[in-house]
Amino acid sequence: MSIPFSRLLTLLFSVGLLGLMATAPATAQERGNEEPRTSPNAAVSQTIGTTEVRLTYGRPQVNGRTIFGGLVPYDEVWRTGANEATTISVSSDVTVEGEPLPAGTYSLYTIPGPDSWTIIFNNVANQWGTQYNQNEDALRVDVTPGSAPQHEMMTFVFEEVTNTSGTCVLYWAEARVPFEIQVAEN
């Protein structure tokens, strides 16, 4: 059985392209990429009483840019990090800024503003950061941002932790954005 020369060239060209695609480096934004990311992933967890709270997020850097009101526009939904959507897991029912949030894992979005931020807990946890759908929101709360010394990499920390509450704080650029999480007393 012989293959026509033009068909053989097409086949060889296709196989060559597939080989090139398989060995070409992927960008840092793609899921499953084994290369170091421009915005490396991080996780932080805190036990409040007996409830574990865990955030997983990509850590973008300032790199000399104007962040809030610039790279991250005011009054628009922001994925609150880089790469995949930032997630927050709570192992039992909690309240956030006094509003109930059932145990589970959520994507965390925000709407930054100069004087107020909206913190959004979205029911679709495993999504690319820009696939947000407001119809899937589990909870929205408003908080007041503050200023902080410069933070080059976006960072979440827990402050003022007791057996019944803790404050989760986002630091990036010169912003400090806190939201309080409360758990039931044991």
Cα distance, first to last residue? 78 Å
Estimate the strand proportion.
35-45%
Strand order across the biggest sheet? 1-2-3-6-7-8
Residue stretches low in confidence (pLDDT < 50, at least 5 long) are 8-31
Taking all residues together, what is the mean pLDDT? 84
Q: How many structurally independent domains?
A: 1
Helix content: 10-25%
List the secondary-structure elements in sequence, H or E.
HEEEEEEEEEE
Shape, please?
A: globular
Structural class: mainly beta
- The Rg value, from CA coordinates, equals 21 Å
Structure description:
The protein is mainly β and 186 residues long. It has one domain. It has one helix and ten strands. The chain has one helix at residues 5-23, and strands spanning 41-48, 51-58, 87-90, 94-96, 99-101, 104-111, 117-122, 137-143, 146-159, 165-183. The strands form two sheets. A six-stranded antiparallel sheet has the order 1-2-3-6-7-8, with no helix packed on it. β9 and β10 (165-183) form a beta hairpin. The model is unreliable at 8-31 (pLDDT under 50).
Summarize the structure.
InterPro entries: DUF2911. By secondary structure, this protein is mostly beta strands.
Protein topology:
Layout (H helix, E strand, L loop, with lengths): L4 H19 L17 E8 L2 E8 L28 E4 L3 E3 L2 E3 L2 E8 L5 E6 L14 E7 L2 E14 L5 E19 L3
Antiparallel strand pairs: 1-2, 2-3, 3-6, 4-5, 4-10, 6-7, 7-8, 9-10
Protein name: DUF2911 domain-containing protein
Pfam families: DUF2911
Keywords: Signal
